[in-house]
Amino acid sequence: MENASRTIKLQDSKTSSPSKRRLLKPHKAASLREWAVAMAWRIVIIAVLIAAWETVVRMELVNAFLLGSPSAILDSAIAMLQSGQLLTDALATVNATVIGFVVGSLLGSMIGLLLWFSSKLSRVIDPFVVALNGVPKIALAPMIIIWFGSGIFSKIALASVATFIVALLSAYQATHQIDQSQIHLMKSFGAKRLQMFTKIIVPSSLPWIISAFRINIGLALVSVVGGEFISSNKGLGHMIFVEGNLFNLPAVWVGVFTLMLVATCLYTCVSFIEKRMLPWNENTQQSNKSAGV
Amino acid sequence: MSSVAYEITTEKPAIQVQDITKTFLSAEGDDIHVLAGITMDIPQKEFVSIVGPSGCGKSTIFNIIAGLLEPTTGNVLVGGDDIERKTGHVGYMMQRDLLLPWRSILDNVTLGLEVKGLSKKERNELAMTYLARYGLDSFAKSYPSTLSGGMRQRVALIRTLVTQPDIILLDEPFSALDYQTRLVLEDEILSILKNEGKTGVLITHDIEEAISVSDRIFVMSKRPTYVKQTYEVGLAAEHGSAMKARTDARFKQYFETIWSELDIQMGRSS
Hints:
The complex is a heterodimer.
Chain A: H1 2-14, H2 20-58, H3 64-67, H4 70-83, H5 85-114, H6 119-134, H7 141-148, H8 152-175, H9 180-188, H10 193-230, H11 236-245, H12 249-277, H13 282-291
Helix pairs in contact in A: 4-12, 5-8, 5-10, 5-11, 5-12, 7-8, 8-10, 10-11, 10-12, 11-12
Chain B: E1 15-25, E2 31-42, E3 47-51, H1 58-66, E4 73-78, E5 81-82, E6 91-93, H2 105-109, H3 111-115, H4 120-133, H5 149-161, E7 167-171, H6 179-195, E8 199-204, H7 207-213, E9 216-220, E10 227-231, H8 235-239, H9 242-245, H10 249-262
Parallel strand pairs in B: 3-8, 3-9, 6-7, 7-8
Antiparallel strand pairs in B: 1-2, 1-4, 4-5, 9-10
């Protein structure tokens, strides 16, 4: 017995790093079970919360007018689905978020990467970028709405601005994480700057850039909804704002839950893309798992 | 200039380091003399080591020979020509393998060939030839993260070899490996370099390693650095193996001589 445990210990310390991958396989079944257990608990929690909510409202322990009730929310949701309003609003928000996210993130990442070519330029503009990053982007909404109108373009512009700066900063910082020895190695092959950029700088910056995407998808949604609060004619933010003013709390709740659903879906999509783009990156595999989706 | 150069020997040294000095400016604006006139002739196809106390500027010498750093005064000639500020005349092997995690072993090996503009077919063929020659062809499709440290260093050497440099600089390539792997790899890499007819320059702080593999050892002084002593060892060449060189009676003598030469003071780390 004692002998056996000693052997295992030896193997452990010797093969720790290369065998990490192989160790994962037998754990797969166990981790699937863990996931199922967690999922079951989540469903239980949601069911208990809904039941408790409905009960306190029915027993008139709290005012249904101020809180809404699960049954009223469900009724409201069904009505909004049937009229098509919910789908129209959700689509408007999702479209603006996705377009703004893609435009802002891609432009920002590209410019951030290209700044690698000119350390002089990046030194000059560095404080500006930091200052812009510090501004809550929603503060720009009134101006952007004046420029782009109250339609979808102003929402796209808001989401683009919000995501642009974060993408630029993380791409730029990523290019500075690169090992000097790696650059020396490329120089020893006689590599030109463009070759270094395409073969080393861009691929090794990708994990940073893509992890900024996860932050950015959330930022884009916040900006779009914020913009819709201020001035719009459709979208989930618009719907929540209008129904809130009418004290129609069940409809507000429908909007909030739909936003949750949209946020989760968008985040999952970005995580999925990340996993597909960086199959060699163990970090992303792990963080996807810990995100639990 | 170069036409007047050494005509006495038929074969020019692979590398001539001619009275190189290097002065850095410290943060306080003072001059720091790192290299105080280094002169070395490294003959063709020899395997030489540069040993010295830590902080003696070994890496500075390395970077100057590689053309990554300009000396304050002095010249480096490779094959009789001044390297000036050029790079690309030497191959590299460093402490870390620097394999790119997003590329397969094959694609890592072809990195230098890609830079040099070979077609995909040419570079894959060449890389596979080398991988097969050193028994790594079955890993061609694997990713670096699945390989052990020793394997990764072998791949790093092959990545350098496929670009066919005449000179390979090795900057403590074994120091991150465990002892057994290190002994095996020292032997292996020495025989690979001899087999391929390369000139090797090893920078190390490991005196035993230097004695076991080198044809010649340059012992450096403390900063400001100069060549304190040169030893023509050649034990590995005599025995045909770095491992066997360690069993030679002269091995211990060399060790003691070089150790006292380095004048390493206990309890005082620099």
